[in-house]
């Protein structure tokens, strides 16, 4: 009689598989299945991550309908003054420092930087925006990841299930989209004590493609040993910002090319130009040449060059499975990918294979500002930052030439959510981010314009009010959130928008969140009311009665009879949830669902502007 046996095979960065083998000397060894009388040898099979990834087309179940909260760490909360930046190119100010007033120290530093490095710093007294416009990008307030840890419970209480962190890797900028070193958490964000120097150190013999040769800094260990477990212990997820397209001028590999020119072993990582003596005299950068963001070289097919590709793969492994034991539970849960359409598909196919091989339950979100359906074929991203939804909603509620026309927004949202249902269920639904004006200001400045345009804090000062938020604007901001929650996907709050904070486009949208806002201790009555209504809206995604329909139900969009209100219908095989969202005088023109098994209604807003949302759940069983 034959013998069946299971063999479990584990490979670093690859899937773990169990193979049921039947072996026989009568048939020349092992084969899968069948019977035999004699036990032979076992065959080992290695499955590469790309093979595994081909079978994982969609995002994980946990991501469908999860409420995300985007944190811009430097401006979120300063819990540890000991790690505040102290560096040549920036000035750290008090958290309460007026965003619109430059200090004497800032002005002096800005002028000296411009004199010493005119290629990279500029100080123009006649610049639009005045003195503060010359110094604002070198200003630091000292926000850190300890501040995120301190407010996890506040976010959890608001219905947040996932923390999306803007870049946290070592960098001297305030935004950190110009990495100095992806191998390390920036000490000004993660160092748990008091720091005196910024640059992490590594063994000079380290292998850029082998993360096991890299050191761990105190900030790295705090991030992995304290923050990540604290998020997971609360049943929440953490997603990091991956910037694989470009780096900063002080990136360690680029600096090696600066020092050694054509003799650098990293010369083929970048598109550099060298003079006759082999010195670097030019480089391709994001948005131009010789800029502050050198881009990695890509092949003719769109893959990253071998050097940076291998390094980015090692960086990915480092943060997804830090101890390399095959269990990704001690790592991050997903990636948001910056300027994702600027790297070619061959790289994303291989990178996705690696990610899904490490953790099949990891989420991959691409920053793409147009419909990214071509990337949703299982070889690139699970979802995108859903700006197309924001365009439609903003046009309806504020800035579009079809403002107020629910027929138009219903048609547009129908088109926006026309991918596979599993894809749409994971879409990162947003109205604002660190790259746009804040939601309340988007609603307040309701003159006709296109999304993410006409909102610069200084250039558009004649037509854009960056400081005022009307009660009507706050009401329409709540309506926008309600549409995001009622639609498929995962709604995202940009930090501070839950209080109705004002803010024009970058850099104004990155003002620090005032002390006491996050725990509610300094909020006024209007702000408390607004945050409470945001909480009510966001927690609907996890409601025990209607949450599953809001997360996974089929969706369709209709307008009211008078074209003022938007009706969103979510349904499955045995239930239908109707969500009516419109001004209080909306004439719906069609009969409400009769005999609902559950119903709820709420007036949205804090002032005289009247909008109402009504939810009705009925059973469709025969």
How does this model look, in words?
This protein is an alpha/beta fold. It folds into four domains: 44 residues, no CATH class; 337 residues, Alpha-Beta Barrel (TIM Barrel); 49 residues, no CATH class; 66 residues. Helices cover 26% and strands 17% of the residues. The termini are far apart.
Topology:
Elements: E1 4-9, E2 17-24, E3 29-31, H1 49-53, E4 68-71, E5 91-92, H2 104-116, H3 131-135, E6 139-140, H4 145-150, H5 152-157, E7 162-165, E8 169-170, E9 181-185, H6 187-190, H7 218-233, E10 237-242, H8 252-260, E11 272-274, E12 280-285, E13 288-289, H9 306-320, E14 334-337, H10 345-358, E15 363-366, E16 383-384, H11 387-399, H12 406-416, H13 421-424, E17 428-429, H14 439-444, H15 471-486, E18 490-494, H16 525-539, H17 547-552, E19 554-559, E20 566-571, E21 575-583, E22 598-604, E23 611-619
Parallel strand pairs: 4-7, 4-18, 5-6, 7-10, 10-14, 14-15, 15-16, 17-18
Antiparallel strand pairs: 1-2, 2-3, 8-9, 11-12, 12-13, 19-20, 20-21, 21-23, 22-23
Helix pairs in contact: 9-10, 11-12, 11-15, 15-16
